[in-house]
Amino acid sequence: MEPYDFFQNPERTSHKHYEALRAFYLEGYNATDAAEKFGLSPNYFKKLRFEFKNKLKAGIYPFFSASKPGPKNRSTGKNTVEYVV
Questions:
Q1: What is this structure's pTM?
Q2: Residues near 35 by Cβ (< 8 Å), separated by ≥ 6?
Q3: pLDDT tens-digit map of 27-50
Q4: 68 vs 49: CA distance, rounded Å
Q5: Residue 68 neighbours by CB distance under 10 Å
């Protein structure tokens, strides 16, 4: 897949939702056109916009969740995982 195609033809549901909202809020698409472009019904897109705005107001980041870093130190003792071949 080419980078252009990745952005123009999102396959995953969350990516479609993101791109539809982006088209509506940033690119000037009206709600009906944004929904249609990404295969959503106008009523579902209305619901999606409502939930998106409410999550933002509540301080919830709706897309691109932060990754959780793994442990910094071993949780087992040095001698517990000893393996000799």
A1: 0.73
A2: 20, 41, 42, 44, 45
A3: 999 999 999 999 999 999 999 999
A4: 27
A5: 5
Task: State the average pLDDT for the chain.
Answer: 88
Question: And the tokens for 70?
Answer: 């793994």
Length of the chain: 85
Query: Residue 25 and residue 49: Cα distance in Å, rounded?
Result: 10
The Cβ-side half-sphere exposure at 24, using a 13 Å CA radius, reads 24
What letter represents residue 6's amino acid?
F
**Separation CA 10–CA 60 (nearest Å):** 23
CA distances from 69 to 59, 63, 84 (A): 22, 18, 30
